[in-house]
Design brief:
186 residues, 8 helices
């Protein structure tokens, strides 16, 4: 029994299981069993949803908690942070922003000049929020309205569910009383 493959892996290896998700599960499962620490560290290093799957499979295959936590810490705290830092610095350096803006303005001629001036205004607002524009930007106001509407929808849905459950409960309590009082046929 110790050398037997789990049923889940046997199901994944069937030829009709050719979806990307099934292939990813099989790949992660095979590599977790043979190279647990490295696999978890690599999955933690890049932002992807497969890390959640790797974490679940670690528990399923009995990977030690300390191996999982150690490789996750190294992957996220050392590798992922530095990868994201380099990407962010590269992407938002002034030269690269200008290249991207030029490309967008060439692609959409009606945006020529507008996008650059909007970005400059946002940069000024970011660097000195109390100077310049006194009123709130339209996007910030729209975002606040969106958040308030989402919270209101959340509370309304909670209230609706409570009312439905109370109504169903009261109807269940009323059914036995109705069964006891049956009209007599004459």
């Amino acid at each position: 029994m110790a050398n037997r493959k789990p049923e889940e892996l046997e199901d994944l290896e069937k030829p009709e299981k050719n979806t990307f998700a099934d292939k990813a599960k099989l790949f992660i499962a095979k590599h977790l069993k043979s190279h647990g620490f490295i696999t978890v560290m690599l999955m933690a290093s890049i932002p992807n949803p497969l890390f959640d799957l790797a974490g679940l499979m670690c528990g399923h295959f009995g990977i030690s908690l300390w191996i999982f936590l150690g490789s996750t810490m190294i992957g996220k705290a050392i590798f992922k942070v530095h990868i994201q830092m380099i990407f962010t610095v590269f992407l938002f350096s002034q030269h690269h922003v200008e290249v991207i803006l030029h490309f967008i303005e060439e692609l959409v001629p009606s945006m020529k000049g507008r996008l650059s001036s909007w970005l400059e205004a946002q940069q000024k607002l970011l660097r000195s929020p109390n100077q310049g524009i006194q009123e709130k930007p339209w996007f910030a106001a729209a975002w606040e309205v969106f958040i308030v509407l989402m919270i209101a929808f959340f509370f309304i849905s909670i209230l609706n569910n409570v009312v439905r459950s109370e109504l169903a409960e009261s109807q269940e309590q009323a059914k036995p009383a109705q069964k006891k009082i049956k009209p007599k046929k004459e």
